[in-house]
């Protein structure tokens, strides 16, 4: 049975094709935060859509369907990372290693900050908050692949670092270093693309 | 014990403290450093901000705003995705 058919049978009001397509796109965008394999992302999104409509999306408002579907997707991705079938180890690519070298430029000899770090103010309004979030999403897309994946497993899927190490075959020290680099790279990226851009506006 | 109270070490400990409890020695060292270093207090604030903002992004609280384009990931990076890691 297609997802469309399920949608129509499970809801009082048929869920329009356009709404379904939009929801699917939204879920794919989220799945790609955590999964580099496009086919895997498509599969888990499809599973999520089926679960959403089997459980009766019709009883919910449009905005709550989205957040509910994202929560289901998150569980499916976490389950996938925990499944024994998945390849266990990851290979850090050269760009993951090079990130560390690039970030060393933040420090002088002796490990002191080379440049002053400005404070972040809270976004002043909703529009600013949207810009900030959109910048963060752009910055995340620029993290080296494995670095980004470890960050997303920690911050979205909520894995403890110990479990991330086990699932990905990394040492605890490696895991700490990757998370440290991810946060530092995001901090620097946000500073340049959001804070500085805002100051120039 | 060169570098023990460095900003680099403080940032490592700040990141680690978001994932696991620090032992007493590390915690003390970090607190002392933060007390004297304004830049690292800002780093602390930014790490916390990134965690909070990521949570909102991942949980779908955002509107349908597309990701920003033309991002320059590091001061030396270029917007074409090479990441500024150099050769």
Treating each run of at least 4 consecutive H or I residues as one helix, how many helices of chain A?
9
Hey, roughly how much beta strand do the residues of chain A contain?
Answer: under 5%
Number of helices in the DSSP assignment of chain B: 3
Low-confidence stretches of chain B: 77-87
Distance between the termini of chain A: 52 Å
- Gyration radius of chain A (Cα, Å) is 20 Å
The CATH topology of the largest domain in chain A turns out to be Arc Repressor Mutant, subunit A
Shape of chain B: elongated
> Considering DSSP H and I runs of 4 or more, what fraction of the residues of chain B is helical?
40-55%
Tell me the radius of gyration of chain B: 17 Å
Look at the helices and sheets of chain B and give the structural class. mainly alpha
Count of strand segments of chain A: 0
Judging from the principal axes of the Cα atoms, what is the shape of chain A?
Answer: flat
- Strand runs of chain B, count: 0
CATH top level class name of the largest domain in chain A: Mainly Alpha
> Can you say what the CATH homologous superfamily of the largest domain in chain A is?
Winged helix-like DNA-binding domain superfamily/Winged helix DNA-binding domain
Order of helices and strands of chain B: HHH
Q: How many domains of chain A?
A: 2
Assigned CATH architecture of the largest domain in chain A: Orthogonal Bundle
* Class of secondary structure makeup of chain A: mainly alpha
Approximate helicity band of chain A: 55-70%
């Amino acid at each position: 049975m297609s997802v469309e058919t399920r949608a129509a049978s499970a809801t009082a009001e048929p869920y329009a094709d356009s709404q379904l397509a939009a929801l699917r796109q939204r879920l794919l965008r989220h799945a790609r935060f955590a999964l580099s394999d496009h086919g895997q992302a498509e599969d888990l999104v499809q599973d999520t859509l089926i679960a959403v409509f089997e459980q009766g999306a019709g009883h919910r408002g449009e905005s709550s369907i989205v957040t509910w579907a994202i929560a289901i997707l998150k569980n499916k991705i976490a389950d996938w990372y925990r499944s024994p079938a998945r390849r266990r180890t990851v290979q850090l690519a050269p760009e993951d290693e090079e990130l560390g070298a690039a970030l060393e430029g933040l420090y002088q000899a002796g490990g002191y900050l080379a440049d002053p770090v400005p404070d972040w103010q809270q976004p002043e309004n909703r529009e600013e908050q949207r810009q900030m979030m959109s910048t963060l999403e752009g910055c995340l897309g620029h993290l080296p692949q494995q670095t980004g994946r470890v960050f997303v497993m920690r911050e979205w899927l909520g894995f403890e670092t110990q479990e991330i190490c086990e699932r990905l075959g990394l040492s605890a020290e490696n895991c700490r270093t990757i998370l440290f680099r991810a946060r530092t790279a995001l901090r620097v990226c946000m500073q340049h693309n959001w804070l500085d851009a805002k100051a120039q506006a | 014990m060169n570098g023990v109270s460095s900003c680099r070490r403080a940032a490592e400990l700040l990141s680690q403290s978001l994932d696991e409890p620090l032992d007493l020695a590390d915690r003390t060292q970090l607190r002392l450093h933060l007390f004297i270093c304004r830049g690292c207090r800002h780093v602390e604030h930014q790490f916390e901000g990134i965690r909070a903002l990521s949570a909102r992004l991942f949980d779908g609280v955002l509107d349908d705003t597309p990701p920003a384009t033309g991002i320059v990931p590091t001061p030396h990076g270029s917007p074409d995705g090479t990441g500024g890691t150099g050769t």
